[in-house]
Amino acid sequence: MKFNDRYSNEPAPRSGRVLPVNTGFRARVTACVASLLMAVAIPAKADQPRGFLETVKKHETLTSTVPENGDQNPYAIVVAPVSAGRIQKDDVLIDNFNDISNLQGLGTTIVNYNPATRQTSLFAALPRQLPQCPGGVGLTTAMTMLKSGWVIVGSAPSSDGTTRTRGDGCLLLLDPNGQLVDTWTGPDISDPWGNMAVIDNGASATLFVSMVGFGIPAPSVRDPDTGFPVTLHKATVLRIELTVPPGKPPAIKSKTVIGDGFAHRADKSSYLIGPTGLAIAPDGTLYVSDALENRIVAISDAATRPTSAGTGEEITKAGLLNRPLSLIIAPNGHLLSCNGLNGQVVETDPVARKQVYAQWINTNQAQSPPGNGNLFGMAIRPDGKAFYYVADDMNTVMESR
User: Fold this and answer.
1) Angstrom distance (rounded) from CA 97 to CA 64
2) Any domain includes 4
């Protein structure tokens, strides 16, 4: 039975074997992945240039992400920019969206992988029931760590693993020792979902977060024309400007919706589908993966614009994209997006507006197509020569280099 075919429309319920962190499991999975993984590059066209992904030759399992409480389904990956509290610079933080019963929207833990020691530890275990956070805690891909050491993570909670009991959630502020310090809510915060883009100046920071919960009904509510759960166009991209006083928690200075009208809906296997990937370029352009429209769009002047750009300007659509999720910027300035409906990561040149290259990084044959629903969070390794990603089917963190 499929463990995590999250992005097919009506898959079998997920099931998975819970494994403790730091066991001999790592060696077994590495051998399995090595035998299955096809490092096959697929150029968009034979005459198009190839980029960062062409340099990636090896895919290695680093660690299990399952802590002692059995949480599963790793979502976010964040590389620590500084050493603070229990975190060392370049540590890799990973959160979990599912609980030990594999129910979505009930994961409450963040684990910390240290690449130097290859050890994994529990960074934070949040309370499932949290009155300050509407609906409780179910950690999402919306996570970051600031240069000041503070960790911010989103919650899109459920009490039964479906959107039938979905809460609006919140943003949670943790200190560098994993302790909850503050909770941010409001009418413009509804299920913070996609991986955060951040401009961090130390004493101030700007967050970009997608919000995908507005008005979403349960997946049993169907569109009579398509037969799928009802699709709305109310998802937003919210800019949050923070002040970061020395020795004190960050505080929200202002919030501005800079993108709206994105498609989003509930899904039996994937909980929520909506804009997921967010990546900020040096020129101030925010790139967004518009999952249901199978495209990547751009919002110009994202850090300064006073109004919404709607759904932005389309950069690329379809082609090698197959429901793009997390979005990061490679060292060459290209965009890397992981597919939700197969095990590929796709490289796009945003200036030329061309898809350059695709590579299989998860070829689990238990899903169809291979790797369907297994990819989510990604992050560039600090030296720029590799990237981290999660393999949800095995509850592991991988490294491609």
Assistant:
1) 15
2) no
